Amino acid sequence: MGCRIIPASPEKYAAGNSEESKNVSCYTRFAQVLVMTIAVSVYGPAGASTMSGERIKQATDLSADFLIRTQNNTGLFDYDISFKTGRPTGKASIVRQAGTGFSLAEYLAATQAPHAREPVRKVLDALQKRSLIFRKNSQWIVGTGRSISKSRTGATALALLIELNYYRTTGSGRYEAARRAWLNGLLALRLGKRGFRRTPYSRVESPYFNGEAWLALATYQDTFRDPKIGEVLAELDDYLVSKYTKKPDIGFYHWGVMAAAVRYKNTRDLRLLKFIEDQTRAYLEDLRPKFKPTHNTCYALEGLVTASDVLNASWAGSAIVPALSQRIQAEAEKNLDFQLLDPAEVAEPPQRRRGKPFDPNEYVGLYYARSDKAYSRIDYTQHCLSAFLKMRPGERP
User: What b-and-e string marks burial along 245-255, b requiring 16 or more CB atoms within 10 Å of the CB?
Assistant: First the structure.
């Protein structure tokens, strides 16, 4: 294209190099126009956005209330529903269950809502019951059943994150023993000086679990300033920054950016700031360059909004900021439209053989998986709750 301008480095921007900090790449210019064109074609003329602070507040309150309603007597959540049949699929994932608890704990931390405390405690109680001793009594890993092989690193990391948010919000030491055991279990799931095992006996890393575990340890360190965990994180920072700079991964992106943001807050290491920018550029240019109006993308919005917050606060001269802002606007508007607000839009499903009577009012606040509005699963609502909490005026998880 012949017009690429090399953007300022964070070091030069921090030093006040105003000329280089204003440089914008050809991609950024193109992406601005492209994403704005998409947003205008889908949502109307610029300036006509209905994505007000009050709408975002409503969205988070409704989705939190939905998740609380769908919490069952096990302390976990009704997993999914097909609106074509009015029934769940029968599938489940302990990682998504724990992730849903994490989003509720974030909601509690951001809003201090009293009615969210007991549901978060119920999730923590449920995850304690599903914790198994790994190699030592002091090491817990979260799974399903009584089989170590069915435990998951991601579920263990998310259990720790739920407890940390609960502790940071309430100051309660109720789950202190579980916190220590999940921390020790998570550390035991690490592969030497590399990332984290997908399962306890696996030698394969998972990009999702690498990001979730990094965020859990970063949040633990942000809370307690433990020298030993600080040493682990310094090593882990080096490894994960190197690994995912070489090969960005869509599963790692949002968790990794959220983790890097916490680490940057604590260390002020400019390398982490550059990593956030590079990962976000990779998302916009390579991983998901096309805006998809039919897909729920709240998982990515978590990372995009986090990146925007960090870059605008610490490196507003980054060349990707304009395109990033436009992409967030388009993605947020689209995903808000995936939330069920009016139960009248839910058609009565075919006659079912079992289960409780179908009541569409129970589903108000959930997020659909796609624009066809035929299916919903708890993690779609989880990620949307987490993403829009980061956009909620005056409040942050």
Answer: eeebbbbbbbb
Q: Which two tokens stand for residue 231?
A: 């040493």
pLDDT grade, residue 86 (50/70/90)? Answer: confident
Q: What is the pLDDT of residues 199-243, one digit of tens each?
A: 999 999 999 999 999 999 999 999 999 999 999 999 999 999 999
Say whether pLDDT at 3 is over 90: no
Looking at the structure of the chain, the number of domains it has is 1
Tell me: pLDDT of 26 over 70: no
Helices (H), 5-116: 10-14, 18-21, 26-43, 53-70, 94-111
Distances (CA, A) of 387 to 21, 103, 109, 358, 380: 28, 9, 14, 29, 11
**Contact predicate 71/126, CB 8 Å:** no
Measured at the CA of 262, the angle between CA 260 and CA 266, to 5 degrees, comes to 110
pLDDT band, very low/low/confident/very high, at 23 (cuts 50, 70, 90): very low
- The H-or-E segment that residue 127 falls in is helix 117-129
Mean pLDDT, rounded, of the chain: 88
pLDDT, tens only, 114-164: 999 999 999 999 999 999 999 999 999 999 878 898 899 999 999 999 999
**Whole domain around residue 151: which residue ranges?**
49-247
| 260's tokens | 């890097």
Q: Which residues pair with 295 in a beta bridge?
A: 370
**pTM for this prediction:** 0.89
Q: Residues 142-145: contacts with CB within 8 Å, 24+ apart? A: 142/94, 142/98, 142/182, 142/185, 143/94, 144/92, 144/94
Label each residue of 310-341 as H, E or C: HHHHHCCCCCCHHHHHHHHHHHHHHHHCCECC
Domain containing 176 — which CATH number? 1.50.10.20
- 3-state SS, 235-285, equals HHHHHHHHHHHHCCCHHHHHHHHHHHHHHHHHHCCHHHHHHHHHHHHHHHH
Q: Quick check: is 205 in a domain? A: yes
Whether residue 321 is contained in a domain is answered as no
